[in-house]
Design brief:
Keywords: Transcription, Transcription antitermination, Transcription regulation
Radius of gyration: 19 Å
Pfam families: NusG
Shape: elongated
CATH architecture of the largest domain: 2-Layer Sandwich
Number of strands: 15
CATH topology of the largest domain: Alpha-Beta Plaits
Strand content: 35-45%
Protein name: NusG-like N-terminal domain-containing protein
Number of domains: 2
Order of helices and strands: EHEEEEEEEEHEEEEEE
Domain NusG-like N-terminal: 4-99
GO cellular component, one term: cytosol
CATH class of the largest domain: Alpha Beta
Largest sheet: 5 strands, antiparallel
Number of helices: 2
Distance between the termini: 45 Å
Length: 164
């Protein structure tokens, strides 16, 4: 194995991203946990950008990877076959550039207005086009979706829609 330094991906236990980060950093590992600052009305104003995932910087042949899987909060190291998945430095840089001055990401859905065209990015209606109607309770939105020739009001997670 070469002494190549690269970013890898940790799969954490549910809602234990911060615990895993703290424990890994205490062991001397370099980690990165991108976080979202949610609206002030939210019960959890700060949340992980990628729930259950944490980036870790490791050097093949130098870093001891065995303590990682037994670290509190860690479920496993994400692998492709038998090799740990490698994340390109450019992707980590792009994620970091999109953070604000405090290091947090902001959800773009705060800027949606009634009548905006949106696209569903996940779920059973992924890639469908809809019209934004209103923001609901924490992280929920009402959209108008044409199905079978009829406009339907559907409540979805605000994370599942993006401006068209």
């Amino acid at each position: 194995m070469s002494n190549q330094t690269a970013w890898h991906l940790i799969y954490t236990k549910p809602r234990q991203e911060r615990t895993a980060r703290e424990q890994l950093e205490r062991q001397g590992y370099t980690t990165y946990l991108p976080e979202i600052r949610q609206s002030s009305q939210s019960h959890k104003p700060i949340a992980p950008l990628f729930p259950r995932y944490l980036f870790i910087r490791l050097t093949a042949g130098r870093d001891d990877w065995t303590p990682i899987r037994s670290t509190r909060g860690v479920s496993s190291l994400v692998r492709v076959g038998m090799k740990p998945a490698t994340i390109p430095d450019q992707l980590i840089s792009a994620i970091r550039k999109r953070a604000d001055a405090d290091g947090f990401h902001r959800l773009g859905n705060d800027t949606l207005k009634m009548g905006d065209r949106v696209r569903l990015v996940s779920g059973p209606f992924a890639d469908y086009e809809a019209i934004f109607s209103e923001k609901r309770a924490e992280n929920r939105a009402i959209i108008l979706l044409n199905l079978i020739g009829k406009q339907n009001r559907i409540e979805v997670s605000a994370h599942n829609i993006a401006l068209f």
